[in-house]
Structure formats: structure tokens, C-alpha cells
Amino acid sequence: MTRSHTIAILPGDGIGPEVISCALEVLDAAETRYNFTTTRTEYAAGANHYLETGELFAEVQGQLRGADAILFGSMGDPRVTPGILERGFILEMRQRFQQAANVRPVRLYPGVPTPIAGLTPERCELVIVRENTEGAYVGQGSTVHAGTPNAVAMQESLNTRAGIERVVDFSFRLALGRRKKLTLCHKTNILVAAGQLWQEVVADVAKRYPEVETDYVHVDAMCFHLPLTPERFDVVVTDNLFGDIITDLGAVIQGGLGVATSANLNLDGTAPSMFEAIHGSAPDIAGKGWANPSGAILSLALMLGHLGEGEAAQAIEAATVEVLGSLPALAGADMGATTAELGTRIANIVRSGRA
Amino acid sequence: MTRSHTIAILPGDGIGPEVISCALEVLDAAETRYNFTTTRTEYAAGANHYLETGELFAEVQGQLRGADAILFGSMGDPRVTPGILERGFILEMRQRFQQAANVRPVRLYPGVPTPIAGLTPERCELVIVRENTEGAYVGQGSTVHAGTPNAVAMQESLNTRAGIERVVDFSFRLALGRRKKLTLCHKTNILVAAGQLWQEVVADVAKRYPEVETDYVHVDAMCFHLPLTPERFDVVVTDNLFGDIITDLGAVIQGGLGVATSANLNLDGTAPSMFEAIHGSAPDIAGKGWANPSGAILSLALMLGHLGEGEAAQAIEAATVEVLGSLPALAGADMGATTAELGTRIANIVRSGRA
Ligand SMILES: CC(C)[C@H](C(=O)O)[C@@H](O)C(=O)O
Ligand SMILES: CC(C)[C@H](C(=O)O)[C@@H](O)C(=O)O
């Protein structure tokens, strides 16, 4: 019997549809080669859809819930007030679908140029796990005496034992299957209450994983450890806001946002997980064929791995890395091929079974 | 009549005393050459003093208040619980002395190796101004149901119109004397209340500085703009926590914590400003002569500029840059000279008036 998966596709805005169309071509190739099928449904979501209909996540939530996984392009458009799509769609999905862990591999692939002098692929193979539902992302804050000289804005960060524990436990399990090292990244000397809770949970959960070594690094210090000594890290677990910041730094190290990818994992099976490249919608280059589809294709690989298609996932990753390593530039007019051509090139390698 | 300044010296812990002693040798040279005098008083502060006496900032506050400026080494020791000295001394000084602006120049000096491939000194000449008294640094947060599965930790960030305005106004003035560009760094799409207040204040104050162009960058995006396109920035203003993070990234770009320096400026004349290198106390290399005194000596230069000794400040900076550019390594056993030797070398150049 052929394995089958139901996938929701959200191409979104800007370069999203271009890179997702490449990912789907690669998915076709993987299905042929690795003997599984997918039922795909595409959903309109993002800036255009919002401007036409006013619809955000709430309206599509019911339809998405039945999918085994969600493949996401990118969202954002200068015509929409900043924050609307981010909070109304992306954060709403993370919340409603309890996508508790935002997993971002930081790998320097062979042949991909890194801006960090002297960094080699062997030294850069880590995963950052970001808590994805709470912390400073819980609300919009509040302001008293707005518009007066006495205005005071309060922004709260809420951290629950349960929310931290599920992502910390996930991170330990991840580390167990890797180099067995977990680093907590926080700012415990200043954010005392939240910091203590994070440290407490890590210490408690560590007892269940005696083989995993634990370590701690302040978020400011992470800014030099991550680029200069990434070999120090295996799995890094951190809160929502710090994760937002340090994963972008991670992406820089591995050659840029175009290459980086992420999984927004639901850990309790109540809703689908979502997979997306880290790059934004890049409206300035949309439609030009200048976008690098690698981020989206690597997120497809993450998704297939998650769905149990490990062989296909590995083949897609290997094919992408092979093509990435051959490019004269990672994006733009000098990439040496269009977005679509790169998609086809990667799909062909996957189909050939050569990777 | 010779100009005279009263300076409080706080060598602190670890490598602090070593690098401060170099800075004082350079100060001697500058006084001779540039015809001013200082009255210096050294205060015991830091881990040893705390372990012996239990004293933190409160006990020395009265004595420090009369100084024209404070020269600070570094603080921290593994024997003291993390957070005690940071909150009890460093943050307490920033608060009590209303050192509202933490100013951190990010300059790549010629000859200093940067880990960022292809970065050149002309492209890296910016200043980060960090709000230094509020935001997420206001308190310790609070926890309900601590120690139970229902524990929730709340961490608040308080942002006042007055607190933001003074540091934003300072940043505009700074930009006016430079390349006339001010960039706000925040996360306005998520931290809505605080973000709006910051944006509002920048927009309002901008009206008083029509020649200064303003720009905005999210803190996560800053992680790639800062290393990859630092030429985009002239003055960057940001909140306390984001400033803590991105200034460490700035230090990496300019060659490491050993080179970076900072001013904690009191802007209303009610208390002295404080000047310090960005590096920590590095207890692992203390006493070995492996510490690079440049950060401390450059903070002396910042201090002298602040006290109106512009010529001396420039000479010290130039001498430090000259010596920095000649080192085989920026710190450690391979630095090619001891901490003290480097101090003497820089002092000699300053005394000779050659720089
Ligand atoms: C778009 C935005 C809401 C989002 C975030 O802040 O989490 C993005 O920066 C990310 O990292 O996925
Ligand atoms: C020591 C610590 C309290 C401090 C901070 O967080 O502000 C340090 O990291 C800094 O940047 O000066």
C-alpha cells in the first residue's frame, strides 16, 4: 500500500508562490521516486487575500486543521500595516495549532559561502529550538496616559511551566538523537523570574535525560559564541523573543536567509505542524526569478521527515545542498539560474535517485 | 590655568585592575602632553569587596557622586551568584546616576581583524545608543505558583515617554554631528505598546531635527544588517534589552569584546557618567598579562572627550588604533606583548605626541 499524506499549501505573498511552486515540483519527483502520494490543497492566504476579503487565520483555521502538515511560503506586503498579518495569521496559527516548538537548523552546507571568516561546515551543525507560543509574544501590552508626556507603555512576557517544559523536553529528546548537548540561552541575570523558571525546568527535565550534557549562555554572549564558536552548540533552546533574534543570526552564519528553514511543530498531535523558509516575501524581487528556492525546498524536506518520509527528506536535502554549492551567488540576478530552473534542477536530481 | 578633573577609578575584578592600570599610565602621558591634571580616587568595588564586606553600589554611591567621571574596569567572579553584582552594582549605578544613554561606538579600526568576510573599516563606523535605565531591566518580575506545575513567571518591560525621549533626543543630536542618519531598532510588530511609544517619540523628536534622516529596523533583521551592511547605519537607537544584545554583535564585528568600549552617560548633569570597556572580568586569564587593554584605554579616550579634553582623546584613540593594528592576535598568549607592555607602548606614543 502506498503511504499518503494530506498537505495544506499556503504560498502567500511576494516570492512565496515562486518558491513554493519549486518545492511542489520537487515533491512530485520525491513521490515518484520514494513511492508515496500526497493530497494537496492550496489556500489563499496573505496580503492579497486579506486586502480583498479581510480574512486572516480565523477563517481558514477549520480547513487547515485536517491536514497532516502545512507548507508555507511567505507573508507580507508593504500595502498592509506592519503587524496585521504577523499577528493575525502567523502568530495566530502558532497559538491556535499549539505549534510549541519552532525548530531552526543552523547548518553551513559545503560550498555555500558564509560571511564568517574561516568558518567550516564541520564546525557549524546545530539546531535552535525556540519556544513558539508565549514569552513576550503573548500580547500587545498596554499604555497609560498615551499621547501625553506621562505616557508609560508596559509590555509583559508570560512564561508558563507547561509551555516551557514541553519545548525543553522536546529539545532534550532532539539532543539525545544528536551530539547530546543542550544549551539554554536566556538572560537570567536580568530577567530573573522568567530566567529562574527556565533554569528550573531545564534542571528538572535534565534528570530524565542523564546522558545529555547541559550548558547555559546569556543571549548577549550568544551574539559572539554563535558566529565565532558554533561548534560549541548542538541543540540550543530559548524563549520566543530571544529565539526570534538569535535564529536570524544563525541564518546569517549559514549563508543567509535564503538558505535557512524552520519547522513550527505541534507536539501533542492536536493540530498540524507548519514548515517554512525563514526568508520574507521580498516584494522587491517578486516575479523576477531571482529568489533562491532552497529555503522552501529544505522546509519541504523537514516536512517530509516529520511525516515519516525520511528517505525522501534526505534525498531532497542532499540534492538541494548539491545545487546550492554550485551557485555563483545565493540570490539575485547573479544566481546563474532562475528560481524555476533551480527548482527543476533539484527535482531532477531527486527523481534520478542520484543524491 | 591648568584644567583639572576629578575622576573616580573602579578597577573591579579579574582583568579589570590590569587593564585599568594601563589606562592610568596612558592618562599620565596624556596629562603631561595635553596640559591638564586629574585628581583620581580609587574605590574598592566588585566581587572581592562584596565577599569581604557585603557592600554594593549603595555604600559607595555618595563618594562617587562628586566625581566628574567614573572609569570602570570590569566586574564579576564565579564565587558570586550571577545577578548580584550586575543588579546590585552596575544596574544600580545606571539607575541612581540616571545614566540614561549607553553609547557604544562600533568601529572597525584599520589593521584589526574582523570575523566578517570582506568588511572594511570605511563601511563600519556607527554608534549604537542603548536606553540604559528602563525597559525589561526595570525589575525582577514575579512568579505565581512557583515550584508547581502551574507556575507562571511574568516579566514586565516598562517604557516611559520621558525615558525614551531623553535618549532619542541625545541620539538625534549625536547624528547631527555625524552622517545625519538615525535608525530605530525595535520589534514594533510584536511588542506593540512599547513599539508604538518608541516610534511616536522618534517621529516627534525628528521634527526638531529636520536634517536628520530616520529609518527603522526590526531587532531580528538587525542581526543580518549589522554584520552584512553596517554602512547602512550612522546612529542606531534602541531599548535596553535589544541594546544589550545588538551591541555585543557590534563588538564581534569590530574585532571582539577586547576592542569595544562604552559610555554610560548621565544627560542631565545630576551625577557622573561612567566609562567602561565592554569585556567582562575574564577570571580565567586574570593575572596572566593576556588581556588586551585597548577596550579600557579607548574608554579612557571616551571619558576625556566627554570631559572636554578632545585633543587628548583623539591622540589616545589614534595611539591605541596604531598599536592594535600591529598585534598578531587580539588577546591571549599570542598577543605578542603583555597587557602592561601594550599599555606602556600606547602611553609612549601619546607622550611623544606622534599620534
Ligand atoms: C513575522 C514575525 C511575526 C516572525 C516572528 O517575529 O516570530 C518572524 O520574524 C519569524 O521569526 O518567524
Ligand atoms: C552585566 C550586565 C548586567 C550588563 C547588561 O546586561 O546590561 C552587560 O551585559 C552589559 O551589556 O553592560
From TrEMBL, chains A, B:
<dbReference type="InterPro" id="IPR019818">
    <property type="entry name" value="IsoCit/isopropylmalate_DH_CS"/>
</dbReference>
<keyword id="KW-0464">Manganese</keyword>
<dbReference type="InterPro" id="IPR050501">
    <property type="entry name" value="ICDH/IPMDH"/>
</dbReference>
<keyword id="KW-0520">NAD</keyword>
<dbReference type="GO" id="GO:0051287">
    <property type="term" value="F:NAD binding"/>
</dbReference>
<keyword id="KW-0560">Oxidoreductase</keyword>
<dbReference type="GO" id="GO:0016616">
    <property type="term" value="F:oxidoreductase activity, acting on the CH-OH group of donors, NAD or NADP as acceptor"/>
</dbReference>
<dbReference type="InterPro" id="IPR024084">
    <property type="entry name" value="IsoPropMal-DH-like_dom"/>
</dbReference>
<keyword id="KW-0479">Metal-binding</keyword>
<protein>
    <submittedName>
        <fullName>3-isopropylmalate dehydrogenase</fullName>
    </submittedName>
</protein>
<feature type="domain" description="Isopropylmalate dehydrogenase-like">
    <location>
        <begin position="6"/>
        <end position="346"/>
    </location>
</feature>
<dbReference type="GO" id="GO:0000287">
    <property type="term" value="F:magnesium ion binding"/>
</dbReference>
<dbReference type="Pfam" id="PF00180">
    <property type="entry name" value="Iso_dh"/>
</dbReference>
